[in-house]
Amino acid sequence: MSGALAVAGGDAFGAEAWVRSLQLGLGRGWSKAEAAAPAPLSADAAEDALIAAARSGSPQAFSRLVERHQQAVRAFLRRACGDPARADDLAQETFLAAWGRIKRFDGRSSFRSWLCGIAYHKHLGDRRASLRSLKRDGDWAEAQVQSLRAGAADERLALQDAMASLPAEQRAAVALCLAADFSHGEAAAALNLPLGTVKSHVARGRAKLLERLGATDV
Length: 218
Known about the structure:
mainly alpha, Rna Polymerase Sigma Factor, Chain: A, 11 helices, globular
């Protein structure tokens, strides 16, 4: 099963393109068409069949679902935690946890939203453990200094540093709606937050990132 769940691929959403999307207010969370006619959250018929087979115990069907959604999960975790290597580990943990909980998936949200919800809670647990470890070892201040120095090196690291400055829930909402192309409704389902809260997090997070990166609305 571990081979079938191996997470591969890269984060194709470059920093420069994402900064541009922040300026333009892109992402499904900002779609005027979607505001008028929200996209349905249910999966297509082929995905429904894979989910049904996975719920019946088929590892092959679940592996197909992993192939479909691993890029979105990894991209979300990279934006959320700012560490590509750790994001890959958390993605692996997310899919292993999802396989163990697959029978609990009830279809009230999209499968992608359900996976990102699991990923978000994995990230929060990992973040709490990391903070405890850093404080215990006395390395927290040094880690912050190194992060700031690295952030000045190039635009990509500057974006990671700016994302890291956002509160956890705000960062997660921004990562889903502006980087992972989630609608506000999908992000609300994934994060288990009210729709209005997600919209507020995205708007405020976007404004903070633009300010932090020295960019302006266009």
